[in-house]
Amino acid sequence: MTEKNHWHPAFVGATEWELKKNKIREEDVMCQALRELMSDVIEKEVEEGREEGRKEGLKEGQKAAIVAAAKNLMQTMKWTSEQAMKALGISDAEQSEYIALL
Q1: DSSP string, 43-89
Q2: How far is CA 18 from the centre of its chain?
Q3: CA 25, CA 30: separation in Å to the nearest integer?
Q4: Of 8-12, 45-49, 58-62, 90-94, which range is least confident?
Q5: C-beta separation of 71 from 80 below 8 A
Q6: Does residue 98 contact residue 85 with C-beta atoms inside 8 Å?
Q7: Distance from C-alpha of 97 to C-alpha of 74, rounded to nearest angstrom
């Protein structure tokens, strides 16, 4: 006669619960380890994004200053937009971009 294990249902349920808890703990530990490994990469990406934003903001600020200076020259000196752009040293290639902003 083969010996058969008769486990109490409460014990079987507890064992399954312990296995699930252990699996959850393992997954949590793996997630935390991944976060730690990725933190340097994430920090680098965030800093690169900030730097790109700063550069873009600087460009926009410079454009706004040139447009304001051109408007001032046009009003005070009664110049055309082309004359104002030339006085500000804006290249012919860039003038159309600035004229559109006036």
Answers
A1: HHHHHHHHHHHHHHHHHHHHHHHHHHHHHHHHHHH---HHHHHHHTT
A2: 41
A3: 9
A4: 8-12
A5: no
A6: yes
A7: 17
Sign, Cα dihedral of 55, 60, 65, 69: positive
Q: Are 75 and 69 in contact (CB under 8 A)?
A: no
Q: What's the pTM?
A: 0.58
DSSP letter, residue 9: H
Whole-Å CA distances, 16 to 22, 25, 42: 10, 14, 37
State whether the Cα torsion 55-59-65-69 is positive or negative.
Answer: positive
What ranges do the domains of the chain cover?
9-101
The burial class, CB within 10 Å (0-12 / 13-18 / 19+), for 71 is: middle
Write down the pLDDT at residue 1. Answer: 47
- Both tokens assigned to 58: 């600087």
